[in-house]
Amino acid sequence: MPRTLDGQITLEKTPSYFVTREAPGRIHGMSPDTKLIVVVRNPVTRAISDYAQTLSKTPGLPSFRALAFRHGLGPVDTAWSAVRIGLYAQHLTNWLRLFPLSRFLFVSGERLVSDPAGEVGRVQDFLGLKRVVTDKHFYFNATKGFPCLKKAQGGSRPRCLGKSKGRPHPRVPEAVVRRLRDFYRPFNRRFYQMTGQDFGWD
């Protein structure tokens, strides 16, 4: 990380930090005062999105159901990373050994799409910044299905998520989705209790 001068905030974004066992110790060793922002979304939707991204890079993958459940429709396979990542309560437990809850802001991935200015406002507050990014800075891109930033003054064009975001998800049978919802429910509820936030995934 580069040195941060007075009046500056240094940000770094890596999705795998939250689920990497060694990350809390390394980050705490670098700076125990680090503020941590974690964007989470419904773990079932997240797993399907993860699968869609992998499928786009590796055509011919087994079906989502074949990967999500051992032996086709046996127990949920938590060894598969697309499933394991959504066990947010387990990952947070690892972080809370070193960082107090007050160092975290949990951002709802769903609200980031439905109310980007509201969620970005929470981030600005958490970082002690003046709220300069507001709803006037966003527009909804119907093609991508996500909000985009309007063109900055002097900028050449609006800023949207890259080509890897907003791709269509494969159709997953409702029975598979239901089983995964049931599987994640106790983990989600524990995560709600730990964070003091109900993300409404149940």
Automatic annotation (TrEMBL):
A Pfam family cross-referenced in the UniProt record is Sulfotransfer_1
A GO molecular function for this record? [heparan sulfate]-glucosamine 3-sulfotransferase activity
Q: Which InterPro entries match?
A: NST/OST, P-loop_NTPase, Sulfotransferase_dom
The UniProt keywords, alphabetically, are: Disulfide bond, Glycoprotein, Transferase
Question: Where does the Sulfotransferase domain lie?
Answer: 30-185
The Enzyme Commission number assigned here is 2.8.2.-
Question: Which domain of life does this protein belong to?
Answer: Eukaryota
Cystine pairs annotated here are: 148-160
Q: Where does 3'-phosphoadenylyl sulfate bind?
A: 41, 49, 165-169
Top-level class of the enzyme under EC nomenclature: transferase
- Can you supply a Gene Ontology BP term from the record? heparan sulfate proteoglycan biosynthetic process
By its UniProt entry, which Gene3D superfamilies does this protein fall under? P-loop containing nucleotide triphosphate hydrolases
So what family is this one in? Belongs to the sulfotransferase 1 family.
Q: What name is this protein filed under?
A: Sulfotransferase
Q: Which organism is it from?
A: Panthera tigris altaica
